[in-house]
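Structure ticket #2291
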Amino acid sequence: MNKFGFTLIELIIAVAILGTIFSAGLYGITRLNSAITEFSAHDIETMLGSAARRARSGVLGTSWGIYIPYDEQTRRASQVILFSGDSYATRDQNQDIISVFNEDIQFTSVDFSGSGGATGNDHEIVFEVFSGQTTQYGSITIETFESTRTISIPEIGIPVREF
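Resolution: structure written out below.
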């Protein structure tokens, strides 16, 4: 007599194998997303340093800055724009360098108010040509899956990551 079907032990083994494959895949996806987010946070640090270096080097004979178009409600953004000019509004758009990154980064605090009170435009920081100094000094706190990073920008215009 031929019997077709699965025994209970075969079914349990099949479910265990599928569960193991699913959990390994989920872990891999989570780690990949975390790594991409961490790389994006590092990219913001790099863009700040690049703007300050370009200004100190006198590239194009103009000030350089970055603009972070984060949403005021969600505190998230998908890009950072490195620009040439005295402000984002008056920049040379042909020189824009846009860095696109993971939207899972949250800008928990952005304060580029300098010595005065916040002006409400804490989306940009500009470094003066040749000196690299800024009147918009302050800090950015970025939160990702695994960590919180604070980047301070002193008046001298050299971004410093606080650990």
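Closing remark: The longest strand covers residues 79-84.
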